[in-house]
Amino acid sequence: MAEVTYSWPENHKSRLIGKRVSRLDGMEKSTGAAKYTYDINLPKQLVVRALGCPHAHCRVISVDASAAEEVPGVVLVHLIKAPKPGDDPVEIRADGTLLVAVAAETEAIAAEGLSKLKVKYELLESFVADHDLQAAEAKKRTKKAGGGIELDEALGEPDDDDDEEEWEEQKVQELFAQSTYVVEGNYGIDTITHCCLEPHGSTLHWDGDRLKVNLSTQNVSRTDDGYADALKISADEVDVHCEYIGGGFGSKFKPDYWGIAAAEIAKKTGRPIKFLLTRNQELKIGGNRPSGFIDVKLGADENGVVQVWDSHHWGTSGFNGSTVSVGNFPYVFRPKNWRRRATGIITDNEPSVAWRAPNHPQACAITQTAYDDLAAKMQADSLDIFLRNLENIDSPEKSLVYAEQLRIGADLIDWRKHWHLHGKGKRRGSVVEGLGIGIHKWGGTANSSNCLLKIHPDGGVESYCGTQDLGTGTRTICAMVLAETLGLPIEAVKVNIGSSTYPFSGASGGSTTVGAVSESHRRAAQEVLAQLFDLVAKKLEVPAEKLEASSGSISVVGYSDKSLSWKQACSLIGIQPLEVTSIYKRGDDSPLSSSNVAGCQMARVAVDTDTGVVKIIKMVAVQDMGLVMNRKTAESQIYGALIMSIAAALFEQRINDPKTGAFINSELDNYRLPRLGDTGELVVHFHEPESERARGVIGLGEPPAISGGAAIANAVCNATGVRVPTLPLTPKRVLDALRTAKG
Amino acid sequence: MNNFEYAQPTTESEAVALLTESKKETVILAGGTDLVGLMKRMVVTADRVVNICEIKSLQQIERDDSGSVWIGAAVCLGDFLDDKNTDEFPSAKQVIQGISSIQLQSQGTLAGELLRRPNCWYFREGHGLLADSGRMVNEGDNRYHAILGNRGPARFVNASRLAPSLITLAAQIRIIGPGKDDEKILDLASLYRTPAADSERENVLQPGQLVTHVIIPAHGNRLSAVYEVRQGAGPDQPLAAAAVSMDVSSGRVQNASIVLGQVAPTPWVATGAAQALCGKTVTEESAAMVGIEAVSGAMPLSQNEYKIQLAQVAVKRAVLKAAGYDTGGLDSPVINEPSASLETHIA
To answer: For a 10 Å CB count at each end of chain A, is N or C smaller?
Structure first.
């Protein structure tokens, strides 16, 4: 067999890749036939409910479980984060931390058992004012979180006897003095939660010494080691399954401590266990995205090109006291001179976990607003200011891509028609309209992925890969790649994913999955096809390189009468199936995938200045992603990202009680989210010149979820002429900002 | 949720018997859109749940000889919306349209909506209606709490979205129980009260009592409208709301009723504002003046001063809307110019 050269088919030859293909499991999901972890009930299972700590900061002194244990139907009371009798108290640093679990015959009995637990707490002072740097400093709740400075070489170097910091400070001040425009501002974005529709959790049982877990996870292949570490068994004794998942967004990579508790309870009771978080617990401990607040000063030349950036930002990632990574400030833009500093705030909250494009949406929302305020100060067009500052960005090779994307976006939102200077638009009664921009970047490198592909002598095709479909259409992509490569209809291939017993495939995080499965499935299919071509070539007495697979047959290029049907061809395999396992390792140079995308989003909003209500009229997303695999699911990925951006820009917010620290809007009746009526018109444009296609597949999960918040915030500022500093832009915040501006 | 007995009576008298026959803690289940969540969170625990949705007399909408419309307590919001008999109550229909969730419209009932428990997060986290005699709200996050009627310990806002409009329509309710033959008709406004102690609820219903009907008198050409300030298009609680009903003759308002929602522990009857509107021609200026009058007694908490403006704007816009004028704001037809539909981009 000749060595296989991996490649994608040319555009005009693609039947499936780049086309609109509906999700293969769309009907099952729509009708409820698809079984999510939450839907799985095992024979004789016990249901577990856990007591969440009602205090943000306390010590758990003791737990009296005697009354709970007496409730008929309660089988086990299991301590999670609580002291055993005689143990030292356990300090709790976040409202909702799971203390004690009750396993019972039914959910109601478990809940009743919980209500009978008597827990003694010692309350400790809590701190949750993550926006208030001074208060945090006074309470010693801050931590240095990095920073740095870079000055243009032309400014020279400090002399040996200069104090370096003083010299830098002097240079920074000189740069501001030389600037034609200086903007000072403060901006912010609150903590939001992942709010997965399907809460975190599992249904699991022990089969002898083997742990079998149905887990709502983004990481089918690699949560086994998490269980193994915690339970002192080996990873080969753990099987993880997840056919369908109701949302993860970066929060479902591990078994989590409640998952370990479920396994321990199953071991102790000898019964299968179902343990999923309640809605309230999902919001409190299922995952959150850190907040970010910033003081910025920037200086620009007469053209509005920023020459110096000086910022200090802070925020919280919960009780571990980290903040948004300082490396991305200002976001995408990178003036020649910058100084930046970050401070983490230690609050009594659950630690944050990865949220779709970790750090980027916050960095974008609190720095590109400052660039827009520069446009406002200059009485200039924001689009021009964004375009001019493309001369100083962190990936200079992308500046032409951004420029082109901004031009396309501007056309799609009719920028020139609707643009007006900040606060100078036409008023219709109390309503003003405005336009805003954000730009973003992301890597999107393909993750590692292996695929076992079997071709049966009767023509059957099945694949096995330990990846997972987060709802984005991964299963469909796998089938498309196989069917395209083998020249078969998509229904002719059986794709198996969602089990750790299948060949390894990386976690779905960081926009890595579409590249991963495209790599592994294309490679496996090309290799298996090469083997099949060898058999067919022999039979037809032609060279293998003259063969092609299409329309369910293998034929000689240019001689369609000289061919074998797929089934006939497969009958040449012999009695054993043809099996190939492809291996793709993250970082391997490959013609099939690459990384690094740009993108821009624009928003047109209307603001009712009497009520502070903001309405999205239209949003435009322009996005490159290399080779588009499935046009339909790629589009819906971006629609979803735009809606998530609207959610974070206008609605979502974790609200902690300022005194007790409790997370008081941890149910959906008060954790506000947008509905379809709030999204306005959404326009998605794929930026895909031939040069993009040639880059191969690049992940799309994160990038479109980044810059929408900045675009909306800037549009509200353009409409009202007033900066509403902190996202979400609620009616209260809009009215408060308008009132402050009036004086 | 704890374990409970479940009863499903088919007559009003059976229901009263089930509600009163034992000393057990009993709750009434209609649509369950509020109760079930509260039970799951153990904020409400009951030994017995009595489902009233199988009682035929509670499911009908009928007009009596005087022209009043009797609406059964278990009539779902969607049926109220679709029924011809309710056409003369546009403000009530506007509210139900604004509860923009097909699930809530189909499952939620009329009386259930009127008796929805407060959405106050301290109440829903299990701290009771008064949440430490109002201290938790005062010292905590009170952005959605009361700006009127908040001088006692109660700081929550009444959760019903329909009550303001039905009160301006002079609606009454029929209550039966706890005695076998007990029956009374009460003005809807007097159903609500501001609790002064932890033992009191946000309404005057006693254990064993059941609201069976809402009775709305015929309205002829009386104008009515509601304006709710909603943050978004979803079914979330509005931030402030106002309902107006009024007769207009020779271009002047003859008599008016104005009730605010989401601003006080009860639907807030703004008598002074209604009087101020009488004799006036409805204009942008007179409507704005009435709005200012309606909130003249407001006393904001630490974080909800913005609600004073919202309530004021809600009254102004409700008056304009009732008179058939453009309310302005984001609902104005001028703002909602037609643009390409979402479908064209999805297709």
So the answer is: C
Count helices and strands in chain B by DSSP H and E runs: 13, 12
Q: Which of B105, B284, B304, B306 to mutate: most A Cβ within 10 Å?
A: B306
Strand B240-249, strand B223-229: pairing: antiparallel
* Structure tokens belonging to residue A527: 């290799």
- pLDDT value at residue A143: 97
**A431 to chain B: closest CA residue:** B329
Q: What is the CATH number of the domain that holds A548?
A: 3.30.365.10
Is B3's CB within 8 Å of A108's CB?
yes
| Shared-domain flag, residues A118 and A267 | yes
For A682, which of B230, B330, B342 is closest by C-beta distance? B342
One domain for residues A607 and A715 = yes
Task: Write the CA distances from A538 to A5, A459, A525, A574, integer angstroms.
Answer: 21, 18, 20, 14
Alpha-carbon gap: A59 to the closest alpha carbon of chain B (Å): 20
Residue B333: per-residue pLDDT: 60
Are residues A45 and A71 both part of a single domain?
yes
Q: Distance between CA atoms of A303 and B56, rounded to whole angstroms?
A: 75
pLDDT in tens, A576-624: 999 999 999 999 999 999 999 999 999 999 999 999 999 999 999 999 9
Interface touch B100/A677, C-beta < 8 Å:
yes
Domain match, A102 and A47 both: yes
Same domain, yes or no, for A564 and A627?
Answer: no
Residues of A in contact with B237 (CB under 8 A): 669
- Same domain? For A480 and A428 the reply is no
Residue A374 has pLDDT above 90, yes or no: yes
Among chain B residues, CA nearest to A728: B231
ipTM greater than cut 0.90: yes
Q: In this complex, which of B37, B231, B309 lies closest to A730 when CB atoms are compared?
A: B231
Show the domains of chain B with their CATH numbers. Answer: 59-216 (3.30.465.10), 223-331 (3.30.390.50)
Gap between the Cα atoms of B125 and B130, Å rounded: 12
In this structure, the answer to whether residues A635 and A715 fall within a common structural domain is yes
- Residues in A touching B303 (Cβ below 8 Å): 732
- Nearest residue, CB atoms, B334 vs list A115, A428, A655: A428
Whether residue A430 and residue B231 make contact (CB cut-off 8 A), yes or no, is: no
- Partner residue facing B340 (CB), from A111, A280, A681: A681
Residue A107 host element (H or E) = helix A107-115
Between chain A and chain B, the number of residue pairs with CB atoms below 8 A apart is: 140
**A575 in the same domain as A599:** no
- Look up the domain containing A244 and give its range: 37-124+200-276
Q: Report the first-to-last Cα separation within chain B, whole angstroms.
A: 44
**Any residues with CB less than 8 A from the CB of A316 and at least 6 apart, and which?**
A130, A191, A290, A291, A322, A323, A344, A345, A346, A347, A349
Number of domains making up chain A = 3
